[in-house]
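Milestone M4 deliverable, item 7.
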Amino acid sequence: MTDGLEPTETTDDEITVIILGKPNRRERIACSSFKEAIRLVKAKNGPETTVKIENRSEEILFTSDEMDIDDWENEWGRAKRRLAVDVEDYDCPYDSVGCVVDDLCVQCKMDKVQDQY
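Output delivered:
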């Protein structure tokens, strides 16, 4: 038995920030979100340091030598918003504005349940 609550959910780190310094210094820091990785890049970036963001597939998404973190952050935010907007078209028969395929309104949910029986 433990002296506290056990976590009910765990997540593995998907994003890694790589800090390359001189001489031959390399540090890998696991981050749980892009926001955390961006904050870390901003804090560690400098003239003698190269900072990279790597995804789970070991693909380099950002390199401080090639781009500015603020520009990359803005583009990341735009891409994230585009993904949030790209939803399947759904015409609610009740004209509910918030009714979409993944989150039906109450009336559409009731219709769906009734159609099953």
